[in-house]
Write a structure and sequence with these properties.
The protein is α/β, with parallel strands linked by helices. It has 4 domains: about 20-260 and about 310-485, Rossmann fold (3-Layer(aba) Sandwich), CATH 3.40.50.1820; about 535-685; about 710-1075 and about 1085-1100, Rossmann fold (3-Layer(aba) Sandwich); about 1110-1195, Immunoglobulin-like, CATH 2.60.40.10. It has 28 helices and 53 strands. Strands 1-4-5-7-9-8-10-11-12-13-14-15 form a 12-stranded mixed beta sheet, with helices on both faces. Helix 23 (about 985-990) runs parallel beside helix 25 (about 1015-1030). The chain starts with a helix and ends with a strand. InterPro entries: AB_hydrolase_fold, CarbesteraseB, Carboxylesterase_B_AS, Type-B_Carboxylest/Lipase. One of its GO terms (molecular function) is hydrolase activity. Belongs to the type-B carboxylesterase/lipase family. This is Carboxylesterase type B domain-containing protein.
């Protein structure tokens, strides 16, 4: 059945009756994709009787007209049966948009065409005075894979842009079903896929006018195997071409790849269909389900079964010939104009995949010449020699990291296709301006050719091959130019009659080397093409005596504009600096560390930068350069987990240059753009700020000078110190009300616990900074206004907490597996201490929680988790209350945190200008900015602290991150662990449980946010309101959402005194004797949540270990020749797996990629012992190989 999730990705906005089109197959009804509203798509239209049952392995025949029903053409039909190797490659790992989706929607009833046509003005898809040019597309895939539902090949965005052409995608039979080489078939009916393609072209000719197309202007375009198909078509139908022009991208009939030979009988033997009578063999095989045949062929491929077999076109002297050169020189081909082109690094993805190092580039270059460029040169020459046929040639050199994310990939095989189809921006990151320009230029070329194959391109300045060395081809996307000419000599000099000629450093090889070498550094954003290579090396050392012992640290290197302090602006939304980070291990005074390059893969050990990943991407110019070294302390926590983190030192845990950091002098340096090395020396330490108060416990959270009303408290937390294995402190700033008398023990005051970020020495509501508020508070009088008289101020004790922590400037004031029992340290150690020190009312109704943003989340979380301790919260613009919307990320349903399914980027920070939203940073940009400051969630920035607070410990001891920090790939299993901190989910789960939160919290949660919140936090509040209303009824939680209010301000955007009077009223109303006193059941101990023992049991080291499991072979024994099945074990979410079977202590077959939760099989070939090895690899994890127990193999 069709995967409904995939269909939902192709929303049909409307399907009008005018979209009903009459065809030779019957009436078909198209639809419109909401993303491209000016394009109508007719998908999955059958052009042939489907080759199923007795028709399997027979030439296709035209589809009989169906007069009984209207064919629903609003969704793709099945792709033809196919299989992929488990071995990783560029297309499966880095650019899966080149794969059909969904992968499992396959069937032999796959012979269909898919049409994308522009809508006419009346909303109908109908021909005008002259039909539109048509481009018929034949996909590649080594004749083994592919189909119309390939995301990078869907042309709707292209047709939307032009509205001047129609694109038709053709499905044809593949592998053993398309090229069977079966003895039971006629010799000229073996290349069934080619016959399918011809029948599809005939169907297009006969029907395209009804879709608005011109049957006399059909261009046949193919890529790779599809391009070979186009060239073979040219040799097969010279006298009845149908098409007016041809485009061959990355392949011609002269492209020779050494595929293993076919062996239909070997497959038949597996299904016990082999028979000396070839007709009987064929008949038997027609009864085997296609999925079983695919599974068998895939198993052979994955297991490395020998001899290897494959099914590709064979010489039949009908559709494929033994000598194409002889046929070409005798003029037996279609003499219509053609475009022929290649990319500069075609062969790289065909070589063994190594994500870090890439392939052997010399081998890759040779393959590019041997299989692609030189055959295209030969085909061009022979077309001219055999009939002076016009050929327009191109070389594609674009290097854009949303298509080619690895530093070594460059313009690999297929990388040019998203540019033509207009799909280049659908994955990983937005396209660069250059990428968009190249795309539009290629689209315009293709369209000009389709409109007029003879004159279209010359009118745009593209010259055809003229049989001499004076011609010009076009070079697309190379360096910083969308298009530039390249002479025939430059294009051909690496080839000599179709093979590499051995000349030293030929021009094309220079292009190849540059395309995938130093100038092709992968960036998180789409790569900006440059005409220089800043081969920059920065050597860093430590002045003598500055480090007592070697240290694990994070080095942050900043390049600020000349004359600018590098620390002046490091914010993601505004910083002009280039920031690079690198982890160093056991770095000491006698060592030098060199920073150079940078990439997406080696973030734990290499350089990673923002906004450019690599130091090689620094533009020439003069910079103020400074380096900072953040020292980590390695500790073993009480649950056995061991981490290296920075412990803040009274500085609020900044992301760089915290107290105790080593620093170099800011130095003006001229960056030349070429090879360059300079040295910096750490010669100073950032000192802690001096203060006038008395210190408790060293430099941690220093106490400050006190006043009559502002006091500072700090204690050593026994609970935190036990967890962290070192002294840990928490503190508070306490503002006393007017009239407070330390000797008056009878007068007691309610308390507002004002949550928020590191407060330094200040009081709540900017007491001590806002002089007007400070004076009024101290006087105990609310000043008169134009409309109100002077009146007494409410009297509270105001408390702000100092709980800077590893990972951030505060702990989020709850118990968490990564930060420890901060909730208990504050609520069970610090608050009781303060209640002994100050005259407060020791009852829940008189303990108020409030705060905004981070403090907003902390205030509501403390009331939700501790109804027994706190009475009410006034939470303003809180961090995500419901992870259905984590800021703007649909965390429970999205596949990627940085990019939506429609290709748009997820925003993170915004503002509004004249009522219009302006995005200041995307989720990707902010996460990558954080990664420059620290790996493993140690940047001391916002997204990382959420990982630490909401997540559990990973098997690597650090927070189990919910997505890959570089790519944004979400790990749903990791997200599941966040649900205990999803406050909506927690309330709903405990609404009627033994905690009875439905009754206990009613009337105690007050939440406010504006619709223009800077961080999209209104979305999480709305989800919270929706879900709590669903269980408690409308208004169960008091939620205020004010239009057009940004992030900031007091609750409900009130003035400070208006707000404090509101709180005062609530306290009096809920006090004993008030109108609505809190009941004993509402504050019972049974309501309590976020219990430390439960938190650490669920998310600590023991739980992380228990999530793991070694591979396991099923069953106690195995037999030679029979499949052995094994699980790959259990691993943390996001770990990528590679498996290897071992027989008698030796590898058997090749290693292969596999998925978590998978079962893998192997058929042992000898007696002895079989074992499965599985290697797991993940960012910030140690690469680990786990082994199953050895299982005996007998006969």
């Amino acid at each position: 059945m069709m995967n409904p999730l995939f269909l939902s990705a192709l929303p049909v906005a409307h399907a009008l009756s005018s979209l009903l089109v009459n065809t030779s197959s019957g009436f078909v009804h198209g639809g419109i994709d909401a993303i491209t509203p000016n394009v109508v798509q007719f998908l999955g239209i059958p052009y042939a009787e489907q080759p199923v049952g007795a028709r399997r392995w027979l030439p296709s025949i035209s589809k009989a007209r169906d007069n009984e029903r209207i064919f629903d053409a609003t969704r793709f039909g099945p792709s033809c049966p196919q299989y992929d190797s488990n071995k990783p490659n560029t297309w499966s790992v880095d650019a899966p948009e080149f794969k059909i989706v969904p992968r499992d929607y396959q069937g032999e009833d796959c012979l269909s065409v898919n049409i994308w046509a522009p809508l006419q003005g009346d909303g109908a898809c109908a021909p005008g005075v002259k039909g539109l040019p048509v481009i018929a597309w034949i996909h590649g895939g080594s004749f083994q894979t592919g189909g119309a539902s390939t995301p990078y090949h869907i042309p709707s965005r292209w047709v939307e842009r032009s509205r001047k052409h129609i694109v038709v995608g053709i499905n044809y039979r593949l592998n053993i079903f398309g090229w069977p080489s079966a003895a039971g078939l006629n010799a000229d009916e073996q290349n069934l896929g080619y016959l399918d393609q011809r029948l599809a072209v005939e169907w297009i000719r006969d029907n395209i006018a009804n879709f608005g197309g011109d049957p006399d202007r059909i261009t046949l375009w193919g890529h790779s195997a599809g391009s070979v198909s186009v060239d073979s078509y040219s040799f097969t139908y010279p006298h009845d071409p149908i098409v007016s022009g041809m485009i061959m991208s990355s392949g011609t009939a002269q492209s020779v790849v050494d595929f293993p030979p076919p062996n239909f009988t070997a497959v038949a033997e597996n299904f016990r269909c082999n028979d000396s009578n070839s007709t009987a063999e064929l008949a038997c095989m027609r009864g085997v389900p296609s999925r079983d045949i695919m599974a068998y062929l895939k198993q052979r491929l994955d297991n490395g079964t020998t001899p290897s077999i494959s099914f590709t076109p064979v010489t039949d002297n009908r559709t494929s010939w033994a000598n194409f050169t002889t046929r070409a020189l005798s003029g037996k081909f279609i003499h219509k104009p053609a475009i022929i082109g290649t990319t500069v690094n075609e062969w790289a993805p065909f070589l063994p995949y190594n994500r870090t190092l890439g392939p052997n580039q010399t081998v890759a270059d040779n393959g590019t010449l041997r299989v692609f460029l030189c055959p295209s040169v030969l085909t061009t020459h022979e077309r001219y020699a055999g009939g002076k046929a016009t050929t327009f040639r191109y070389l594609y050199g674009g290097n854009f990291s949303n298509i080619a994310p690895r530093w070594w990939e460059g313009a690999y095989h297929s990388a040019d296709l998203p540019l033509v189809f207009g799909t280049h921006g659908i994955a990983r990151s937005n396209s660069t301006p250059l990428e968009i320009t190249v795309s539009e230029q290629m689209q315009d070329y293709w369209l000009a050719f389709a409109e007029d194959p003879v004159n279209g391109l010359p009118a745009m300045g593209w010259k055809g091959y003229a049989g001499n060395s004076k011609g010009e081809s076009v070079l697309l996307g190379w360096e910083d130019k969308a298009v530039q000419p390249i002479t025939d000599i430059e294009l051909e000099s690496a080839c000599d009659e179709g093979v590499p000629n051995g000349k030293p450093n030929p021009p094309v090889l220079c292009l190849v080397a540059l395309a995938v070498g130093a100038s092709a550094v992968a960036t998180v954003k789409a790569h900006v093409e440059r005409d220089y290579n800043a081969n920059l090396n920065v050597k860093l050392s430590v002045a003598s005596g500055l480090l007592d012992a070697p240290t694990d640290s994070r080095i942050v290197l900043m390049f600020a504009p000349n004359g600018t302090d590098p620390l002046n602006d490091t914010d993601v939304t505004s910083s002009p600096s280039k920031i690079f980070g690198k982890n160093v291990y056991r770095f000491g005074s006698n060592e030098t560390i060199t920073l150079s390059g940078g990439n997406n893969e080696t973030t734990p050990t290499g350089v990673f930068g923002w906004p450019n990943v690599s130091l090689s991407d620094i533009d020439p110019g003069t910079y103020s350069v400074q380096a900072f070294l953040t020292r980590y302390e390695t500790v073993t926590r009480s649950d056995g987990s061991k981490v290296s983190v920075r412990f803040p030192c009274g500085d609020g845990a900044p992301d760089v240059n915290g107290f105790g950091s080593l620093i170099t002098p800011a130095t003006d340096i001229e960056i030349s753009g070429g090879a360059q090395t300079f040295e910096l020396t750490f010669n100073n330490i950032t000192k802690a700020e001096s203060f006038a108060g008395k210190e408790v416990g060293g430099c941690n959270q220093g106490n400050y000078k006190e006043t009559d009303k502002l006091k500072h408290v700090k204690i050593r937390s026994k609970k935190l110190s036990k967890f962290w294995g070192r002294d840990m402190y928490v503190g508070a700033n306490v503002v006393l009300p007017a009239g407070y008398d330390a000797n008056d023990t009878k007068t007691r005051y309610p308390v507002i616990y004002n949550q928020g970020h590191w407060p330094d020495d200040g009081g709540a509501y900017r007491y001590g900074v806002n002089k007007t508020f400070t004076a009024a508070w101290d006087a105990g009088v609310i000043p008169a206004t134009n409309t109100t008289a002077e009146r007494p101020a409410p009297k509270f004790v105001l408390v702000t907490f100092r709980h800077e922590a590893p990972y951030y400037d505060d702990s989020y004031a709850v118990n968490t597996a990564n930060l420890g029992p901060y909730g208990d340290a504050i609520n069970e150690e610090l608050i009781p201490y303060m209640e002994d020190e100050f005259h407060t009312i020791r009852a829940p109704y008189a303990r108020v929680q409030d705060g905004g943003s981070t403090g907003g989340w902390e205030s509501i979380a403390n009331v939700v988790y501790r109804p027994d301790l706190f009475g009410v919260c006034f939470s303003s613009y809180p961090d995500s209350l419901d992870f259905h919307r984590h800021q703007d990320i649909e965390l429970y349903s999205a596949a990627n945190a940085y990019q939506r399914a429609d290709g748009s980027l997820v925003p993170s920070i915004r503002t509004f200008e004249n009522g219009s939203e302006v995005i200041l940073a995307t989720a990707a940009q902010e996460n990558h900015w954080e990664l420059a400051f620290g790996t493993a969630s140690r940047s001391s920035n916002q997204w990382d602290i959420w990982n630490a607070v909401f997540g559990v410990q990973g098997y690597n001891n650090y927070p189990l991150e919910p997505w890959d920090k570089v790519t944004g790939e979400i790990y749903p299993e990791a997200v599941d662990f966040w649900k205990l901190f999803d406050l909506s989910a927690y309330i709903v789960a405990n609404f009627n449980s033994s905690r009875n939160l439905g009754a206990a919290l009613a009337g105690r949660l007050f939440v406010y946010v504006g619709t223009w919140d800077d961080y999209f936090l209104n979305e999480g509040v709305m989800e919270f309101q929706k879900r709590t209303d669903a269980v408690g009824g409308p208004g169960w939680a008091n939620v205020t959402i004010l239009p057009e209010k940004p992030h900031g301000g007091n609750y409900q955007a009130r003035g400070i005194w208006d707000y404090l009077e509101l709180v005062d009223g609530w306290v009096k109303d809920h006090a004993p004797g008030g109108a609505n006193p809190l009941t004993a059941s509402a504050t019972a101990a049974s309501t309590r949540g976020n219990v430390w023992d439960e938190v650490i049991a669920n998310g600590g080291r023991k739980a992380a270990i228990e999530r793991q499991a070694d591979p396991e072979i099923h069953g106690g024994k195995a037999k030679v020749g029979q499949n052995v099945s094994a699980s790959v074990g259990r691993w943390d979410p996001g770990v990528k797996l590679t498996a290897q079977w071992v027989l008698n202590s030796k590898h058997t077959g090749a290693s292969f990629g596999t998925a978590q939760g998978a079962n893998v099989t192997c058929a042992p070939t000898a007696t002895g012992h079989v074992q499965l090895l599985v290697t797991g690899e993940k960012r910030n994890y140690v690469t680990e190989t786990r082994k199953s127990a050895r299982v005996l193999v007998v006969r």
